[in-house]
Amino acid sequence: LLAQAVDARDPNTQRHSERVAELAVELARTLGWAEHRLDLLREAALVHDVGKIGVPDAVLLKPGRLTDDEFEAVKLHAALGAEIVSEILTPEQVSWVRHHHEKFDGSGYPDRIAGEDIPEAARILCVADSVDVMTSRRPYCEPRTWEDAMDECRRVAGSHFDPRVVEAITSL
């Protein structure tokens, strides 16, 4: 219900959380995760963006490019989302929600952690979330083809994305 509430706020992202959950589980399965861990990942993926309920509509629904201040407001959603789900998910799952915008090179948010310090599930969510955004219609851009999105994933493997997760997604 939390995921549906967030997706319902923005008609451009309806079913985003469900698609991210499906792709994240497929990636984790490709990476050899045990079935019981896939269920944990699915739960966290469904609520990975719940912190966006704290982002003002004027920013969340803005059809154009965000200002630096607006982007800073959006960046708060990862930590807020972790706080919101802390009562319903395990501490491990909460860390996945918190860190799903960390980048492999340490330039992400909210904590600017890098590489193996980012939980593997958060690295998977980062790729699944990004690919869904790239391949979905948004007011500010046309969707990319799957092939174009895979090219972008390969281009930023090692900087934005974990190369192992990129290898997994490009093998699907």
Mind explaining what this structure looks like?
With 172 residues, this protein is mainly alpha-helical. It is built from ten helices and no strands. Helix 2 (16-30) crosses helix 8 (120-135), helix 3 (35-46) crosses helix 7 (91-98) and helix 7 (91-98) crosses helix 8 (120-135). The protein is globular and about 40 Å long.
Features:
single chain, 172 residues, mainly alpha, 10 helices
Give a brief outline of the structure.
The protein is mainly alpha-helical and 172 residues long. 57% of the residues lie in helices and 0% in strands.
Fold topology:
Blueprint: H1 2-9, H2 16-30, H3 35-46, H4 57-60, H5 68-75, H6 77-85, H7 91-98, H8 120-135, H9 146-155, H10 163-170
Helix pairs in contact: 2-3, 2-8, 3-7, 6-7, 7-8, 8-9
User: Would you tell me the overall average pLDDT?
Assistant: 94
C-alpha-based Rg, rounded:
15 Å
Q: Overall 3D geometry?
A: globular
Helix-residue proportion: 55-70%
How far apart are the termini?
Answer: 29 Å
| Number of DSSP strand runs | 0
**Strand percentage:** under 5%
Contiguous uncertain segments of 5+ residues: none
Helix-strand sequence: HHHHHHHHHH
Structural class computed from helices and strand pairing: mainly alpha
Continuous helix count: 10
